[in-house]
């Protein structure tokens, strides 16, 4: 007889491992599956926003993660014309950069220490629900059973498609990154976001792993002109002068980023989706570790409620409602900023303006870090505010 777990979690990235940890913390019997053996690499910029740090703190993981990470206290935006603006990250939680090889292993170990049973090298093919639970099928023909299933498979869509949850390939950014060492100059503890030499809309990044090593990459929404992610990466690193003389360690790795939460399914019968499997990556910045951790926690709390009150249709749609209440505004706002403001002439105007207007600089920081609650910042309000800044700027210049 197949053992029926309270929950089977498919995918042990930040979303799946966080979900497993929070389920186990409530005393549930959890099986966590991944096709990879850990520690495993994940193509990523390795940047953790304050949102991510807040969840890691509730998992009691922040000291351990911080000890292995590079601290980031500010962000810098470089406009297409090379001018830049820098602002401090406000609040108690700053930001970190930590290789995913290390981070994901720490989160997985946390889930295991909390009681999750982990099975690596299990490639899941699909989830088949039935009246009292769901069966998880694998490429080897082995099956697992859970009262509930959480799918946290990231940008890989095969499980979602074969389970009938996704019917077509969702919208995705293209991205590529590599590690560099022996940089000639010390890197500051700054997220550097660069709009020079990258396809639009999109950006390049230089994230410090230490003073002289960095995670460098590009991410962009593909258009007919943009070409491949690796090609965009090569062009960007040619333009980014910070890297002159630095040595690339390891290959340039490309991977898609799903940013379609606004249109994505978030559940199916007996199944909840978390993290990038639900399209939960910021469409402006490509950051998704934070949303994966947050939604992993939310899914775990929802499963606990469901196992007490009953797993019915209203309970499933309630999960979708909770996710949308939390993330929809920020995603709409970020998508809108990406489509309307990430244009080279506008960025060339905004960056020097931000240097003169601390309030605008802070707003940019909040947008970049996904901290801004966009309430009161609709398209018209934003445009009106910018006109005010511009008028002040012009006024200020006439007195220079
Ligand atoms: C180049 C690049 C740069 C990025 N930079 C940043 C950044 O700096 N900061 C940030 O916050 N986000 C960044 N992101 C986004 C971030 O990497 C993801 O949003 C995040 O990893 C999502 O977490 P997750 O747990 O949902 O999925 P993942 O981390 O992708 O984990 C999914 C897991 O599921 C497993 N899996 C998949 N299919 C199966 C299967 N069939 N059977 C069993 N297991 C399976 C995989 O092996 C994997 O371990 C970047 C992405 C890219 C591509």
Small-molecule binders here are:
flavin-adenine dinucleotide
The separation of the N and C termini measures 82 Å
Radius of gyration from the CA trace? 22 Å
CATH-level-2 architecture of the largest domain? 3-Layer(bba) Sandwich
- Compute the average pLDDT: 92
Beta strands, count: 18
Percent helix, as a range, is: 25-40%
CATH topology tier name of the largest domain: FAD/NAD(P)-binding domain
How would you classify the quaternary structure?
single chain
Outline the biggest β-sheet. 8 strands, mixed
The DSSP helix count reads 11
CATH top level class name of the largest domain: Alpha Beta
Stretches with pLDDT under 50, minimum 5 residues: none
Describe this structure as you would to a colleague:
This protein is an alpha/beta fold. It folds into three domains: 4-70 and 95-169 and 260-334, FAD/NAD(P)-binding domain (3-Layer(bba) Sandwich), CATH 3.50.50; 172-257, D-Amino Acid Oxidase, Chain A, domain 2 (2-Layer Sandwich); 344-399, no CATH class. The chain has helices at 14-25, 50-58, 62-67, 100-113, 158-162, 229-239, 289-309, 313-341, 344-356, 358-368, 379-399, and strands at 4-10, 30-33, 47-48, 70-72, 74-78, 84-88, 95-97, 117-119, 124-130, 133-138, 143-151, 172-181, 190-194, 202-208, 214-220, 247-258, 267-268, 271-273. The strands form three sheets. Strands 1, 2, 8, 9, 10, 11, 17 and 18 form an eight-stranded mixed sheet that branches. Helix 1 (14-25) runs parallel beside helix 4 (100-113) and helix 1 (14-25) packs parallel to helix 7 (289-309). The protein starts with a strand and ends with a helix. The protein binds flavin-adenine dinucleotide. Residues 10-16, 33-36, 42-47, 123-124, 152-154, 156, 158-159, 175, 177, 217, 219, 255, 257, 275-277, 281, 286-290, 292 line the site of flavin-adenine dinucleotide (FAD).
């Amino acid at each position: 007889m197949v053992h029926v777990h309270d929950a089977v979690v498919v995918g042990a990235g930040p979303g799946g491992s966080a979900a497993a940890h929070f389920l186990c913390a409530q005393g549930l019997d959890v099986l966590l599956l991944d096709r990879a053996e850990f520690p495993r690499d994940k193509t990523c910029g390795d940047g953790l926003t304050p949102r991510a740090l807040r969840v890691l703190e509730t998992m009691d993981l922040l000291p351990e993660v911080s000890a292995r990470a590079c601290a980031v206290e500010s962000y810098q935006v470089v406009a297409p014309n090379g001018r830049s603006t820098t602002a401090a990250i406000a609040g108690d939680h700053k930001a970190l950069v930590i290789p995913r090889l290390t981070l994901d292993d720490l989160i997985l170990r946390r889930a295991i220490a909390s009681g999750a049973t982990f099975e690596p090298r299990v490639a899941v093919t699909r989830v088949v629900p039935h009246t009292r639970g769901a069966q998880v099928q694998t490429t080897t023909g082995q099956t697992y059973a859970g009262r509930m299933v959480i799918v946290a498979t990231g940008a890989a869509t095969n499980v979602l498609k074969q389970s009938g949850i996704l019917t077509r390939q969702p919208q995705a950014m293209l991205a590529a990154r590599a590690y560099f060492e022996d940089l000639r100059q010390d890197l500051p503890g700054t997220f550097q976001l660069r709009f020079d030499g990258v396809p639009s809309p999109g950006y390049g990044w230089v994230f410090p792993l230490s003073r002289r090593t960095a995670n460098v990459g590009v991410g962009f929404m593909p258009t007919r002109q943009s070409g491949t992610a690796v090609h965009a990466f090569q062009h960007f690193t040619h333009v980014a002068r910070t890297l002159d003389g630095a040595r690339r360690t390891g290959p340039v790795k490309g991977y898609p980023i799903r940013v379609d939460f606004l249109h994505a399914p978030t559940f199916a019968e007996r199944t909840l989706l978390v993290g990038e499997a639900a399209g939960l990556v910021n469409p402006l910045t490509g950051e998704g570790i934070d949303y994966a951790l947050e939604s992993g926690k939310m899914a775990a709390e929802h499963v606990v409620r469901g196992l007490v009150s009953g797993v019915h249709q209203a309970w499933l749609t309630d999960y979708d409602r909770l996710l949308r209440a939390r993330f929809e505004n920020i995603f709409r706002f970020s998508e809108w900023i990406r489509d309307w403001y990430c244009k080279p002439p506008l960025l060339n105007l905004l960056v020097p303006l931000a240097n003169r207007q601390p309030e605008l600089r802070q707003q940019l920081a909040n947008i970049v870090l996904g901290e801004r609650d966009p309430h009161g910042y609709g398209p018209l309000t934003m445009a009106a505010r910018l006109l005010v800044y511009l008028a002040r700027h012009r006024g200020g210049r006439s007195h220079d």
